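HUMAN: You are asked to prepare a plain-text protein record giving the amino acid sequence and the backbone structure tokens, both parts labelled.

ASSISTANT:
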Amino acid sequence: MTVRNKHQSCKVIRFPLEDHTVLWFQEINKYILTLPPADEILCRIAKNEDPSSVLNFCITALNMEHRQACEVTEDFKTYWENLKKEAVSSGKGPSENGEKQISGKNQRSGKYYTIHDQTFFIEYDSPEAALLIHPKFAHLERSEKIPPVHHFRIMDTRSRYQLRVNGREKGAWEKKERHLLAGKVSMQILQKIYQKEEKEWMGVFHAAGITDGKKCILFFGESGSGKSILSSMLMAAGYEILSDDFLPVTSEDALVCRFPAAISIKKQAYEVIQTKFPEIIHSEEHMNPELHKTFRYLPLSSPEPLCVPCKGLVFLRYREHSGFVFGKIPTHEAFKKLIPDSWISPEPDNAERFIRWIASLPCYSLTYSDTQKMIHTMGHLFRDELG
């Protein structure tokens, strides 16, 4: 990621969102939700405006005393510098020269998958690398060796994983950042199956997507909030799943597209899931050493390609004995919740489309343990029957 030095101006785009302002900083692809006058101060500092001009704005426009204006200006400068440092630290460069692969020939393996009528051959340099990717695509594995359209290779070095796609290097990540590698692999698969380049995607969201075939609802929540349980219960009720944690949205028409990875079910949810899908108990179990959690995978009812418009965003929490609490929330509150776990395209046009898309959608909060009431209410939401 390229970040301009402290003497250069950063391009800033403003978007109104209810009574708030969203600032997007192009060079670091960062969104900040603010209230006036903080948006104006931060814009001036990011654009590298003369310090005396920023100070004068605080004094004259905001009626601050000189001492207070100095303190506020310094606080915002520090905040801006920290934003840039975060952007630099999140950029992943290639692996160090001289690193050697630690896997031997006996550890390398390869799997063939058919995804949306395209054949992928993914080569894993170690069993650990295979565990990062294979389980969620195992239901799409082909036993016969078919000439692949795409060849992925995940290389395992002493300190990093590297990804190569069709002979081209796509990045390297430290072992502790293996989730970033998994996300990159998914993004590369996504681009191939829908034949869209990265800039043609508005964003990818860490959310579950449920569809009635015509429109979809997106469910957001932290890890452990119950996205997979909700997805499974709604699938059993006749809805289709677009994905339970990797939801791409096109930039041109804001359609949410299916990503056919299996639903990951945590061990504590087995008992709930097996009431509708008894086969989950007999499926292979996998251990995530980072999270110290055990998973089984439930394939989607349909892996076929599908892109539909979004009907609304729901921020979810499954909590035992909570009953059912559902209601609308302000869009700016929803925005703050979804941004941290989302990838938004760094293209200026896509950034503007993203904010307009979020601003156009109704947003809700859901805390529940009553599955039947949840299914009933989501049906009303799909049919526009909510009051």
